């Protein structure tokens, strides 16, 4: 019999319209009425968003449809990264596992079931460190229902205390330990600029959390479970979110199918990885070339 359901944590700020869609979809989930939900509401960064933050806070007080709803209102502005790191860390200490959403993610009716089933199925597999609900719109014919790849995804995910304890946000540490070969692998043969996000954090261009989770998992030789068909859709790429530009290249159709078969092969699925590399190449044909040149320059500055 499955252990107690994992708590669901939702991080919100000032986007009421997006959040309403997130909540309405989650309420339609199997297991919704049995799930305990924790909502972390960040404080307004400045006066320009005070009204919107207040509207969100008024709305979350009215949310029903779950076993319980606990609201944590920040009394100062944490920013997205600190809000998530602190919220996940505190909840996972108490509950040993957690399911994480942000305020711009719409879920399949089977999202919570998939997440809880996966958390139970792999709870004793130490190399499995991350469960992803989202999968990029890759060509997925012939792939199994679920598979492992190295990159994590922050659009609807879950993990355990045994894995999250290795989370480390230390820019200089990663700049020291990654060599050229690791960078190439980390970036899926330089088809996507994961490592450039670490560099941009160092430069102060961005202040993010998710890239350090992927790096933490990567350095532990960890794996991330992904579904063939996505249980999550990101509706935040309309130019209004934090760190999200306007684009539709990540759009997916939500799966309406369950159950799925959980893979017992605790190894990276090479074919799935190749499909993801092909997808990244297709959305930015020359990106990997520009990125490779950028990484080489930074690498020389740091190493020579």
Written description of the protein model:
It is a single chain. With 304 residues, the protein is an alpha/beta fold. The protein has one domain (8-169, 209-268): Spore Coat Polysaccharide Biosynthesis Protein SpsA, Chain A (Alpha-Beta Complex), CATH 3.90.550. Helix content is 39%, strand content 15%. It is built from eleven helices and ten strands. It has helices spanning 16-27, 50-60, 80-95, 111-121, 161-164, 171-177, 180-186, 194-203, 210-219, 270-283, 287-303, and strands spanning 8-12, 36-41, 68-73, 97-102, 105-107, 128-132, 146-149, 157-160, 223-227, 232-234. The strands form two sheets. Strands 3-2-1-4-8-6-9-7 form an eight-stranded mixed sheet, sandwiched between helices. Helix 1 (16-27) links the parallel strand 1 (8-12) and strand 2 (36-41). Helix 6 crosses helix 8. The chain starts with 7 loop residues before the first strand and ends with a helix. 41% of the residues are buried. The model is unreliable at 239-244 and 298-304 (pLDDT under 50).
Annotate the secondary structure layout.
Blueprint: E1 8-12, H1 16-27, E2 36-41, H2 50-60, E3 68-73, H3 80-95, E4 97-102, E5 105-107, H4 111-121, E6 128-132, E7 146-149, E8 157-160, H5 161-164, H6 171-177, H7 180-186, H8 194-203, H9 210-219, E9 223-227, E10 232-234, H10 270-283, H11 287-303
Parallel strand pairs: 1-2, 1-4, 2-3, 6-9
Antiparallel strand pairs: 4-8, 5-10, 6-8, 7-9
Helix pairs in contact: 6-8
